[in-house]
Protein: Succinyl-diaminopimelate desuccinylase
Organism: Roseovarius indicus
Amino acid sequence: MPIDAVLTRIDDQLPDALDRLMALLRIPSISTDPAYKADCQSAADWLVADLQSIGIDAEKRETPGHPMVVGHVEGDGPHLLFYGHYDVQPVDPLDLWKTEPFAPEIQDTDQGRVIRGRGASDDKGQLMTFVEACRAYRDVNGSLPCRITFFFEGEEESGSPSLVPFLKDNAKELSADIALVCDTSMVSPGVPSIASQLRGMLKDEFTLHGPKIDLHSGHYGGPGLNPLKEIARIIASFHDENGRVAVEGFYDGVEEVPDELLRQWENCGFDEETYLKSVGYTQPHGERGYSTLVQQWARPTLEINGLWGGYQGAGSKTVIPAEAHCKLTCRLVGDMDPDHVRKALRQHVEDRLPPDASVTWDNNLDGSPASVMNIDRPEFEQARQALSEEWNREAVFSGMGGSIPVTRFFKDILGLDSMLIGFAQDDDAIHSPNEKYNVESFHKGIRSWARVLDKLAKA
Amino acid sequence: MPIDAVLTRIDDQLPDALDRLMALLRIPSISTDPAYKADCQSAADWLVADLQSIGIDAEKRETPGHPMVVGHVEGDGPHLLFYGHYDVQPVDPLDLWKTEPFAPEIQDTDQGRVIRGRGASDDKGQLMTFVEACRAYRDVNGSLPCRITFFFEGEEESGSPSLVPFLKDNAKELSADIALVCDTSMVSPGVPSIASQLRGMLKDEFTLHGPKIDLHSGHYGGPGLNPLKEIARIIASFHDENGRVAVEGFYDGVEEVPDELLRQWENCGFDEETYLKSVGYTQPHGERGYSTLVQQWARPTLEINGLWGGYQGAGSKTVIPAEAHCKLTCRLVGDMDPDHVRKALRQHVEDRLPPDASVTWDNNLDGSPASVMNIDRPEFEQARQALSEEWNREAVFSGMGGSIPVTRFFKDILGLDSMLIGFAQDDDAIHSPNEKYNVESFHKGIRSWARVLDKLAKA
């Protein structure tokens, strides 16, 4: 069985694979900060060279922002498009890092053996699991098992401004049978997971305007309308006492999770207590009557992400400010329509404005509906079997609380379904100081992709 | 009648008096900013020299902060202590100024002829009304009408850290029969006012703590406790639907305004509509059932002065922050006890904390009860008559929404009652860009003090 030889090759070559990942992690490809523009180019160059080293016809493709990397290899059987991103989040607050973010280390820790450094998990380590699987497969078999297009972007952490134009301009070149994405987590350590439903998101921001100018609370304290008080009252009205969103029409398009899926989730190994305890909670909050997992994967939310107004410095200032500000995001599920939710939300706020107050909205913030993957496609069952064999544990179709916008663009622009398989863990501290990726995630991730490729190619 | 000669002298010398004020206004004596330390010294030096020029035994007295100016002149009759402050507020936002803040100008405007510049009203212009009255009185009569101690501080706009120790250390030297303070406004243009009751103040600040770290709303949005939502809910609970403070025990010590005083206030010329309209209000807000003036002068408040947490930058960030912050002040009236109010307020917040949340308080913020002046003293009636004669309009005993902490220290440390007479107008933009003082306030303010001095000395 050739797959066993590939897996052995992966085991033998792990030190070299880690070395390659470390080299990529040393490149500070922070996409949101213009100071790292040249480093984003270097990361793209590194990937082009690495793909070329395993016989892939790869090149860097410039965009108005950071470049894309596109590679092709011919082959029989299904045509796969593999997506990952080589850019990383900023590293601040730097003083909370225990190592240099771009001087990656292998460390033995309580969480196991880990690769420590910015991008180790999100997404360089994950991206390389697929590349290393391809390398080993080719080393053993002389070629890859099927036709594959590699597609890496460098702007995922900064809103992907070039992605949609690039997909549109290169739709033919990037067409395939199905997209594979490695940018997600396992439900819990050791439980292989295919993310099959992702929440959508609506972003909005408003400013509540009261008096024409900042006022002195000695003069206007009492008769004056205070925007901070009013914005608090409005925000407090967003939820009822059971944690349910109290905006009329908000839940249109939301359905309860089917019993069968609910049973799967209940048995997927998710450790609610640990998950909550790790951030200081003794119990789930939010919508009463729903478990943590169901809330996270299958219930919509309205979260305040930013709130400010008045004086924030040291000491006291007797000001009634002219304005108060609120940033919020809604996570969307099922058939919730972002435009409908936005309208309902804005109406809710406007209905609650007191006299002499007005509201303005930021109209530059977008929204996208939830994504539900097409798990009836045979590739999902093939991948599920491959993962179950590697991890010796039934793989699960999981939900995801966040969104992976690229899957929507693949669907809308390329007509491609996506299959989301990732090996990150919830404690990887992505976007935070001391990001890590377990060596086991990397090693078994490579092995997993080898198995998945094999299954998909042979189907 | 010598007072007529003094008033004529004041009229004749107005251009010179304005020149002197302009010289003082050119000194950027911003007390809160260490960069202006030398300028605070210069302002004190200027005042010492100016007092000396009218025969007053004045000197600069160093403190750990900015210096005090103390001057004495002997005389018969009552012993008056006159207080003012030579320091000013910072000038930011500088781009909203239409002139240089420290290059004062006389301008003809819709509001009349005004002196424009930082400190023109608060408090250099007001302070100089008294000094110029003394100068004219001496020019005409060869000496001042009674014994006067001059006392100017340079830290009023930065919390007066040196004031209490200085008063304690120099209590004997600063003792007098009554204190005169010129740092207040007229109820409305042309209506001379003696502020006879001032609200007290309680400052507090709290931080509401939720998760141990900032969370990603894709992961914890739903089951996660959001401190921004919770702080909004708590702030919303501070008031009931009638604008009344809903903190248990808050109103202990509050009494309704006596009918007679209420009638005086109703006829004091206060133009509610203009007062509200000038800042963009079409109606009074706050506590239902109370007029703007009564709310401002005689009702307690709980105002949010600062509120913040989460992301405030451009665009969106899907964060559930670990903390949310709130700064607040309460205005106190009657016999309200700051310590009691603080305790009630903190209890109110703590009673409303959800599970897994905690609160911490800033324990460095002070409080002081309301001040009610002793208007039965004969000096109040003498001053009221003098003011009524100058302005040709019955002077009123007004309330004040803000506090003048020095009056409390005079009472507690020196045993001195204070009489607060000022000529500022509500539209003077004190603490704001484009501060001004009407030339009429300055001119008739000087004339007013000459008349008041004359009445008090002759009584």
User: Anything to note?
Assistant: Chain A touches chain B through 82 residues (CB under 8 Å). Chain A has a mean pLDDT of 95. The CA atoms of residues 149 and 408 of chain A lie 18 Å apart. The two ends of chain A are 15 Å apart (CA to CA).
